[in-house]
Design brief:
The chain is of the alpha/beta class. The protein is about 35% helix and about 15% strand.
């Protein structure tokens, strides 16, 4: 069971978590086929921090399968942008590697006109308030996005602040609706 809005794991069959009932995120739907717990967390950290890219096809396959539960009107796919310095250091953006197969599976274009303009600290070591502050103004839409319903694809959603910040930027740029597809969702708020 998970919140229909933010994919946060729930102990009861409620459609929305308490946080989404109080304040809805700027995206309408979030889907995560896995929970961010052992062994999934270990595999995703190995991808990001130890370049174990052989896990990516398995996660991409799970995302393609889960994408069938998305609203029918999604018309473009956007991998979570990574700052160029982090991309250069890591050698790849795991979100791009996950989003490409999803876009192909759905027959949709992959958007590349959004950038992470600030080199932010890793979110994984920050509390919720620090995550919000860390991401303020982090994303920039570089060109007009013609899509009306954009799907953000990423590896993991912990508190959801990255997805919220990016969705707000997309909405501000004229995108009507945003959905989120992540491989795994943590139980954080």
């Amino acid at each position: 069971m998970a919140c229909r809005r933010c994919a946060k794991p729930l102990a009861t069959a409620e459609p929305l978590c308490a946080a989404c009932q109080r304040r809805a995120p700027p995206f309408g739907t979030a889907i995560a086929p896995l929970r961010y717990e052992f062994p999934v967390d270990v595999a995703l950290k190995a991808v990001k921090f130890r370049a174990r890219s052989y896990y990516l096809p398995v996660f991409a396959s799970l995302l393609c399968e889960a994408s069938e539960r998305l609203p029918d009107d999604v018309d473009a796919v956007l991998p979570m942008p990574m700052h160029w310095r982090r991309w250069a250091a890591r050698g790849f953006n795991q979100a791009v590697e996950l989003a490409r197969p999803v876009a192909k599976h759905l027959g949709l274009p992959l958007i590349s006109s959004v950038e992470r303009k600030r080199h932010t600290a890793y979110q994984s070591g920050l509390d919720a308030a620090s995550r919000r502050k860390n991401l303020a103004g982090a994303f920039r839409v570089k060109a007009t996005i013609k899509a009306r319903h954009v799907l953000i694809v990423d590896d993991v959603m912990t508190t959801g602040h990255s997805c919220r910040s990016l969705a707000l930027g997309l909405r501000h740029a004229g995108v009507r609706q945003v959905s989120v597809l992540v491989a795994a969702r943590a139980g954080g708020s």
